[in-house]
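Sample entry copied in:
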Amino acid sequence: MPNRRRWRRGLAAGAATAVLLGLAGCAGGPVGPPVLNWYINPDDGGQAEIAARCSAASGGRYSIVTSTLPRESSDQRQQLVRRLAAEDSSIDIMSIDPPYVPEFAAAQFLAPVPEATAQRTTQGVARSAVEGATWEGKLVTVPFWANTQLLWYRKSQLPGSGLDPSKPITWDQLVAAAKAKNSQVAAQGKRAESLTVWLNALVESGGGKIVTDPSPEDPKRIGLGLDSPAATHAAEIMKAVSGVGGPAFSTTAEDENAPAFQSGQAMTAVIWPFIWGKLNSAVADGSVPQSTKDDYGWAPFPRTDPDRPPAPPLGGISLGVGAFSPHPDLAYAATECITSAENQKDYFLTNGNPAAKVAVLSDPDVVKKFPMAPLIAQMLQLAKPRPPTPYYSEVSESIQRTYHPTAGIDPPTVGPATAGLIRAVLAKEKLL
């Protein structure tokens, strides 16, 4: 604990020049129900709609207003950390990307989750979503929606590829199929958070872990598994995929991969389900024919080891209640409303973000619009969060530096080199 107190004081000192956005209220204003400020990630308006519904459903106990955070999750984290380090009491509820949950919890930025709330909000929720909302054995945030990646393929390009989606498919098979068909595998090779997401999924799928001791008293003694056989094999796969990822693979992320797969340039894609929504929009506006939609297929996340189930990445959002909120009891009551099965279903249908509650993913209305939803549910039960550690930002940024470009990495040495960089950064011997 001593190192956490020093870390928090350091954050507070660094936050002295931070601009506080908005005020919870003005002195002398009209008396009414408490206003809960919910800081949300950008979406298509779904969270604001849920806030309005839950405000009405509270029967006058509270009202919820939303404020939108920056687009990038790293920028969202930075803004929230600075304000919470300054003990900002205007933050009642936060939409938090799962990899930052341990940092918020270790810094004591989150109000404790009441036991009854923890039981109710995790009932029927995908195992990985609960794991991503947990730190040191305790639920510290409330799972809201959860996401994972699937293997997408173009049916018309399968003949002669050697791929059989009815059976488990490995990354090695994807590479071989792309070469056989003179096509591409759409994966994320850009120097960005998506690169860490990919590496972690490969390492976890091989039975390893990037971080083995997530929160040592001495940060520079963090336990790392980047020199394991699983990590070496992961690096080998990343290098092989870069050879069939297209000429711009080193600058390619989700926004580039979706159109590459939609155009047929890539015969397979390992990506989040948002590409289904993009395809439907393109069909609706006439820019893409219905035949393209009919040509889309989906299968489980590729295996690293043919004899081991995959460990797809976990995405989504958990809800945290600010430690300095004057209304933590009402804020947690609001999170129960926000994460109800009804609201999770509506949010998936309107905004395309999959529910954390497994039953929602088999709802007939959901399956009609998202026929791959049952497979998403299966993958969420297998998914693994990114390395759970309060030092996640340093870990991820170090990985992005040393594993990029993937075509140039040396599989036996890149892991140990990355581990050395992470420890040096945490020891304040190097800067990122």
About this structure: The chain has a mean pLDDT of 93. The first strand starts at residue 35 and ends at 40.
